Amino acid sequence: MKVISIVGARPQLVKLAPVSAAFADTEHEHLIVHTGQHYDADLSDVFFDGLGIPDPDVHLGVGSGSHGAQTGSVLLALDPVLEREKPDWVLVYGDTNSTIAGALSAVKMHIPVAHLEAGLRSFNRRMPEEHNRVLTDHCADLLLAPTEEAMRHLAAEGLSDRSELAGDVMVDICLRIRDAVLAEGLPAPVLPGGIDPARPFLLATLHRPDNTDDPGRLAALLESLASLPVPVALLAHPRLVARAEEHGLELDRGSVHVGRPLPYADLVAAVLASSGVVTDSGGLQKEAFLLRRTTTTVRPETEWVETVDTGWNVLVPDPHAMDPDAWAGTVTRAAPTADPGTPYGDGHAAKNVVRIIEGRDAKGRRA
Ligand code: UD1
Fold this sequence. Notes:
By secondary structure, this protein is of the alpha/beta class. It folds into two domains: about 1-170 and about 345-360, 3-Layer(aba) Sandwich (Rossmann fold), CATH 3.40.50; about 175-330, 3-Layer(aba) Sandwich (Rossmann fold), CATH 3.40.50. It has helices at about 10-25, 45-50, 65-85, 95-110, 130-140, 150-155, 170-185, 210, 215-225, 240-245, 265-275, 280-290, 305-310, 325-330, 350-360, and strands at about 1-5, 30-35, 60, 90-95, 115, 140-145, 165, 200-205, 230-235, 255-260, 275-280, 295, 315. α1 crosses α15 and α7 packs across α11 (about 265-275). The longest helix has 19 residues, at about 65-85. The protein starts with a strand and ends in a 9-residue tail after the last helix. The structure holds uridine-diphosphate-N-acetylglucosamine. Uridine-diphosphate-N-acetylglucosamine binds next to α1, α5 and α10.
């Protein structure tokens, strides 16, 4: 069997690592197509090097652009690759513009498509990721769901026949890297200047368009971080840096100390060194949950509802509207004591993914 994984953005590279390792343990041929949606070394190269992912077999080099331009460029560049390679399956990951473009290109060429991380929903139609995941689920042949909740969403949309619970491949990689980091005796994390890892600090990221693109909203969020009574290590995504510069907003002020996005092992070490996380990233919400650090999510909703239900994650859509002491109390709250269980699986999801694909015929039916 020949399988092509289509990836392009940072979170997809993290998910690709365990999947590519699982395919390497089989006789199957697994090719990697990198769309080039993320091209900065910080967002792409360091993941291939750091997570031991083989170099991409094909690089489409599409880069940035409007949603339409970026998605269209991937479609245009992918057609000849799929035509030439004639894979038995195309595997797409998550909810980015590379995901929907990969799924569309394959489905129109009658190549079976499997969607990893299927069934997540925010029910927020302002999010580009929500359009991408709904459309990808409805055009894919096989839906690999990470959670029971995702399975319920797929059933509610009439997609049960094509759905299987695989577990979450992020657990595989996050726990593997956590164990490697701990085995090294928790090396000093790479943190922005001004952050003392021996004292409590919060780790923060912000990159969603709803948080970065409106100058008033971004100014209020940055003010809420800057006024906290604990140091904040803000790992700045290029979108955040670009928008702050455009709007004339200083990132490095008050309690905030700015650093660059980290390679995966350094990120895991930084989360473990932190006393809590403030973020709008879906991946980091779950990584903090797996590493047992409290998270405050600056969004009105989350796809990862299990992190909230178990008390590890609290949603604060508008920190600036809160009393400053209540905001500080929320981000520095104590961790829950109850065992949250394993809602994201047991760390063997990538093997499940391979096994499930092996068990389906070319129309996605159980073979
Ligand atoms: C994308 C995904 C989002 C995911 C995120 C992880 C979509 C719709 N969104 O958002 O789901 O959480 O990746 O990071 O696909 N830029 C650079 N260098 C890069 C990449 C981007 O400078 O290597 C800058 C550009 O100014 C670009 C902006 O960041 O316009 C946004 O990049 P883009 O890939 O469009 O989306 P992300 O915000 O990264």
